[in-house]
Amino acid sequence: MPERGLIIAIDGPAASGKGTLARRLAANFGLPHLDTGLLYRATACALLDEGRPLDDIRAAVEAARGLALCDFDEARLRTRELGEAASVVAAIPQVRAALIDMQRGFAGRPQGAVLDGRDIGTVICPQAPVKIFVTASAEKRAQRRALELASRGEKVDYAAVLADVRKRDERDSGRSQAPLKMAEDAVALDTTDLDIEAAYRAACEIVEERLALAGKV
Q1: Which residues contribute to the annotated binding site for ATP?
Q2: Burial, 26: exposed, middle or buried (Cβ in 10 Å; 0-12, 13-18, 19+)?
Q3: Fold topology of 6-213
Q4: What does pLDDT average to over the chain?
Q5: Res 195 pLDDT > 60
Q6: Quick one: which residues bind ATP (predicted)?
Q7: Can you say which residues are annotated as belonging to the binding site?
Q8: How far apart are CA 97 and CA 65, in angstroms?
């Protein structure tokens, strides 16, 4: 059982497997989990539902501030359309600023938490004792995303999915505020050639090693 206040920060590009790993690590260590990408997807969803453009800064900030962590329709939010829309909204500095306190509040729970996203280790929880940067080749990530979308009954064009993945990588890494990058003290985990079980075992080893170094086990 981790000691009070343990934070595990997991970052990485789209479809790298970070969300799956974060959920399993949270269950293993008895910690609450937050997929911070859902915050941006929910913000984008609110804008689309209201017929507002994704670059309407004022409306986007209002939508972000009105979110509640307990009422997400994940099935809807995880569509390809909202993934692309979320990447646009996430590039708005004012939206990211509006969501910082919500994310830090979640991380500040007494028992700690597992958060995954793109700026957890660098911006949201730079003090986290465990930081993992999960990555994989663009081709492998596109393949995973295509399979995920197909499993939901969506029509899938692999070439289009790959183009989306590369576009999101460029947007996420090139934005002016909180760009996607690995924290200096994070451990890289490349899942290109790993199945979920192998990736999970590797992630657990990283956590245990970091906790041992921090004197938390």
Answers
A1: 12-20
A2: buried
A3: Rossmann fold (3.40.50)
A4: 93
A5: yes
A6: 12-20
A7: 12-20
A8: 10
